[in-house]
Amino acid sequence: MGLFSFTQELAIDLGTANTIIMMNDKVMVDEPSVVAIDTTNNQLKAVGRRAQQMIGKGGTMIKTTRPLRDGVIADFYACEMMIRGLIKMIPEKHRLFTPSIRLVICIPSGSTEVEIRAVRDSSEHAGGRDVYMIFEPMAAALGMGIDVEAPEGCMVVDIGGGTTEIAVISLGGIVTNKSIKTAGDEFNGDIIEYMGRMHNLKIDEPTAERIKIAVGSALPELDEPLDDYEVIGPNKVTALPLKVPVSYQEIAHCLDKSIIKIESAVLQALDQTPPELYADIVKRGIFLTGGGALLHGLAKRLTDKTTIQFHVAEDPLHAVSRGTAIALKNVKNFAFLMR
To answer: What is the CB neighbour count within 10 angstroms for residue 305?
Structure first.
């Protein structure tokens, strides 16, 4: 908006792992969904990357938390503080003369009425005067340049931090949807459990995330093999330091059960899809987005399982936020936006 605009318009991808805020089609904030609260006065200490660096280091004085779990708000107060803090991170020059804020915020397609209400309340308490909501798969499809209002079926699989959203979209609506709580956080949990069981190595979530990014794989054999990743941590039994090289084959083995759950959910969604739309999906392929889409070999594994081609979005991490920004510009035209 211009300098003398009295309404600030923000598109927010409120994710379990990361929150992205866009304004005028530009990413203004891209930070981890973490908040640090000073326990002595219950005030905000830090938000985003700064708060993430405090995890496990603040003692009893600082409570570091992720307000969202499995795609929904687990801590209402912390979520409100986080949204406020992230909006304040928008550079000053973009925040002049803006007493009211219009928000389009995305939510999981499997959200209950109570969960939707929690997101709306948190957004309003954080300063949103005019709050609209959009389901994540719809936002992801918009962000990938798909015409969601066309009379054709398209299928989107969005693997985020807390949930995997699978939806068939046609004529501006979600025809079939499946939302499961198997996603990036569960992958991290699998890696933590595996490292403890197989290597007696104690690691935390940030380390598991780094392992997943470096050597995360859905297949035990990749066309372009990945180098081993060295992990340093305490031995669970002796507490002495351990150095363990981790291979992508090991991670493929430890993530296998979680990936089978995603495969099963995709097949269930396909089974519930009307035949006319099913034919469209086979022709166009299935679109894969979200941070989980970056897992090496995942698209190939899902293609082999379903025999339908999987296409990874050009920028899977930002597809949902880009789609939310497109929805913000078309608030009056898109009937699928919830007020």
So the answer is: 16
Supply 88's token pair. Answer: 């304040």
Q: Return the pLDDT at 280.
A: 93
Q: Distance between CA atoms of 32 and 35, rounded to whole angstroms?
A: 9
Residue type, 326: I
Question: Any residues with CB less than 8 A from the CB of 237 and at least 6 apart, and which?
Answer: 200
Q: How many CB atoms lie within 10 A of CB 184?
A: 27
Q: In this predicted structure, what is the pLDDT of residue 244?
A: 93
| Residues in the chain, pLDDT under 70 | 1-6, 58-59, 92-99
pLDDT of residue 122: 82
Query: 3-class secondary structure for the chain?
Result: CCCCCCEEEEEEEECCCEEEEEECCEEEEEEECCEEEECCCCEEEEECHHHHCCCCCCCCCEEEECCEECCEECCHHHHHHHHHHHHHCCCHHHCCCCCEEEEEEEECCCCCHHHHHHHHHHHHHCCEEEEEEEEHHHHHHHHCCCCCCCCCCEEEEEECCCCEEEEEEECCEEEEEEEECCCHHHHHHHHHHHHHHHHCECCCHHHHHHHHHHHCECCCCCCCCCCCEEEEEEECCCCCEEEEEECHHHHHHHHHHHHHHHHHHHHHHHHCCCHHHHHHHHHHCEEEECHHHHCECHHHHHHHHHCCCEEECCCCCCHHHHHHHHHHHCCCCCCCCEC
Give the tokens for residue 224. Answer: 């372009």
Greatest Cα pair distance in the chain: 63
In this predicted structure, what is the pLDDT of residue 260?
A: 96
The per-residue pLDDT of the chain, averaged, comes to: 88
Burial class (CB in 10 A: 0-12, 13-18, 19+), 333: exposed
Q: What is the pLDDT of residue 175?
A: 92
